Amino acid sequence: MDAVFPVEQLRPLHAELFPGPQLEGRHTASCEVHFAPFEMPNPNDDVTSEDYEPLSFESPLRLDFIDLPSLNLNALAGQTFTFPTNPEPGYIDGSIYFVGTHNPVDITRITFGTLTEHGLPVTFEGTWQMEFEASGFQDFETTIHTTLQRRAGTA
Question: Angle 13-39-66 (CA atoms, 0-180°, nearest 5)?
Answer without folding.
Answer: 40
